[in-house]
Structure formats: C-alpha cells, structure tokens
Amino acid sequence: MMNNGKIIVNRMYYFAILLFLIQIIHLILFTTAPTSSVMLTSLLLYSFIFLNFFIIKKSSMTLSLFNINANKLLFFLVLGALGKLISRYDYIQEWLQGGLTLSRNSEIAGKGGWYSYLSILFYPATILYFLANKEVLQKKTYLLCNVTIIAFLLIDFIFVGTRNVPIFIILIYLLTRKKQYKFNGKTFLTLLLLIIGFLIIFDYTTTTRLNGIFSWQIHLQNTISTQVVGINETTLKFLNHYASFLYPLIFLTHYLAHSIGELVYLLSHEYSFGSNGPIYLISEFCTAGLCDKGYYNDLILSENIRAGVYQTIFGSLLYDFGISIGILIFILIFSFNSLSIILSKKIGVINLMLLIILILSPIENYLYGGMGLIQIVMTYIIYLISITKIKSNG
C-alpha cells in the first residue's frame, strides 16, 4: 500500500517525540548539565518542532507527491555507484592494511577527484529510489539495486567509519517505507535487532578509530563531547562496576543529547557570531570543488571555540549569520516548508527532507552536515528529471 502524507508525518512526529524523550532523560539522569538554561533551550526548540507537526497534522494534507519513475533513476544510481566505488577503493585498501584508524586518517583516501562528481549522485538517487514506484523494475534489477545500496551503506560504516549520512539515509527509508508498521512480535524483534545493529556499528566506529588501547570509561571522561556536557560520576561508577556492556548505549544517547548543552555553552561564551561571514555555508560548496575546503576548515576551527562537536542546527547558523538572523532563517525555512505542505495538501521530496532536518535540528545542522546542501540540491534535480507526470482525468 502506498504511503499517504499523513502516515509519513505521523511517523516523523512520533520519532521527534522519541528523540525529545531520549535527550531529556539522558540530560537529567546521566549528565552534569541538567541546568535550567539547558532545559529551557530544549523545550523552546522542541516546542517549535511540535508546533509545526501539530499544524501539519491538523491540515487536510493526505497525499505524498512523489510519482517517481524508478527506471529513470537507474541511470543516476549506476553513475553514483561507479563514483562511489572509485572513491571508496582507497579507504578499503587502507582499512585492509591498518584498520579504521588508518583509513580515517589517511592522506590518500578521500583526496577526491573527478569521480567525486559522480559519487555525489548516489545517495540522492538512493533516497528517490526509496520513494519511487519500484514495481516497474524487473526482479533482478530490483534486487541488484537493493544489494548495491546496502553494500555502500556498509562500506561507509565499516571502511570509512562515517555515521551521519548512512544513518540519515536509513532514517528516510524507515520513515517512508510503504508497508505500515504493525505492533506485534515480529515488529518488536525487528526493532530490537535494528537497535542492536546500530549499537554494534556505533561501538565499532568509536572504538576502532582511535590509536592505542581503548577504554570506554576513559573515553567517556575525556572525549570532546563530554568536556562541556559531562557524564556524571554516579553513572560512570555504575557502568564500570556493574554494566560495562551498556557503555556504547550511554555514549549513543549522549551523542544524541549533548548538543543542547553545547549550544547553551556557545551562547554563554561566544560574542563574535557572524564576524567572518557565512563560513559554514561557503564550505558546503567546497565538496564540489568550488572553494578550498582546507582553508575554510581552518577558518571554522579558529572561529568556533567548540568546533568538532554537535551544537544543534544553530551552531553553524549563528556563526554564519549572527544570533538574530540565524534564528530568523531557521524559523522562516521550516515555517515556509510547513506552509507549503498545508497549502498544497501534499508532501513533496524537499518537504520530506526538510521535515527530517527539522526533527534532527536539536542534534546537529543536517542542512549543512549529513547529506549537505549539494546533495540536497542534487536530490531535487534528479527528482525533477525522474518524475512521472500524472495526467488529470478531469
């Protein structure tokens, strides 16, 4: 059964509630940062998110406006897979020689080339593939596409050690899949296996990317994400003595929750937002070879006192545009997106992606990071090329 817009929006709404509960529970029970300012910031941000979903849910929107021809997507999937394969070859070679530590820190892997322009097509085409009518594909083609997508997701997890983009892609699939979720034993088992899988990947990409002997206890005490929002001593002692197997789970929830505290820290200690112009925004275009990525990375590191940690969507927006304009841009983008859905009574591809970015805004700026602006734009361009025009009977 084809998903309608309300089913997709309801799934997103419940996912936003889940993230809110994870953040609040983690901050209160496990960290040193459940201050009134942190709680107030979290409530304000989630109030805006829930208000958007409440208004959309109350509207008469019923349809999902995708109408994508899967056959037309194959061209972009093949080109993207070719570029992806070439771009990941050096990572795999380095990983085979020295594991994830070597592949992530190698000067050879990830240096880019002409194939980067092709690899940019892969994940946008993958997102559209999830939304497309795949019944028009031959069975062998359908299976090959699925295997290719799964293979590159695993390559990015295992050999590159990246998490943001693959998780973003998986999240889109889970939120938009055509089959409805039923609350039964099979669904519960699938959910449990999915959580265990995420924890295994999260544990692997954390413990194997660092040199030397890894200790979860030392990591939780000294990693950059716990310098401002620390794990409290009670939690650390309990994990160390009774439940060391829960270290990855606590770090995962910390990964999802610490951004709010980081934003409050920024607002308390930084007074030069926007002084160097939109450095984060410009750096997004460096991925397409339009500017010097190294130069802008160095500029960001010198400007942002907490560069390297998640700072909600506002961390980069504030540095780019200042506090007032940054907040205004955030409100306008997502308010106009909700208004577009309400007026058209449909949810389109960009509407969908912006809603997911809104849900993830208390964690990080997925408008810049995650997929990134270039791949978001490519998603829409490929969508326009691949769309199937529906003739009206009226």
Q: How is the biggest beta sheet arranged?
A: 2 strands, parallel
> Low-confidence parts, pLDDT < 50 over ≥5 residues?
390-394
Radius of gyration: 21 Å
Category by helix and strand content: mainly alpha
N-to-C span? 25 Å
**Into how many domains do the coordinates divide?**
1
Strand arrangement in the largest pleated sheet: 1-2
| Topology as a string of helices (H) and strands (E) | HHEHHHHHHHHHHHHHEHH
Mean of pLDDT: 87
- Indicate the proportion of strand residues: under 5%
| Coarse shape | globular
Keywords: Membrane, Transmembrane, Transmembrane helix
Protein name: Oligosaccharide repeat unit polymerase
Transmembrane segments: 12-31, 37-56, 114-132, 144-175, 187-205, 245-267, 317-336, 343-360, 366-385
Organism: Photorhabdus temperata subsp. temperata Meg1
